[in-house]
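Encode chain A's predicted structure.
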Amino acid sequence: MSNLLRLGAVWACLSLASCSAEAKAPPAVLKKSDRTYNEVENKLRVVAQPLGKPQPGEWLAEHKEDGQTFAQYLAARPVRRTKDLKKIYLVLLGDFTPEQKRVLEITREYLAVFFQTPVEVHRELPLADVPARVRRKHPSWGMEQIQTP
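Encoded structure for chain A:
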């Protein structure tokens, strides 16, 4: 398995691990938060630059996406840090060389700074533990992929 696929599996597991806790639904009406979010969006709008035409090899050159407004992002009820959700857990999937483990450690440190919350490795799982039903070969590239919903 390629290093890129391994790191991709780690990112997918990061998403899974950080979102796996049951988050409480936000109130239907967020009066003060709505004002705060609107202020933030308005301040950021002046520095937002529309994306140029995607270049060959870029994600959007090969995958049609409609994009997402800030309101749509909020409507999706993203998992946010709360008094109950205050740590990000990583699940490392696969066998890593010492160099790859160093990259993962640097990534863990970066995530902690970026999200301003503790990040720790919850567990490490060997690829042999991944059942066949969630594995596939990419139809075009032939690379092995692992489904991480």
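Residues 98-115 form the longest helix (18 residues).
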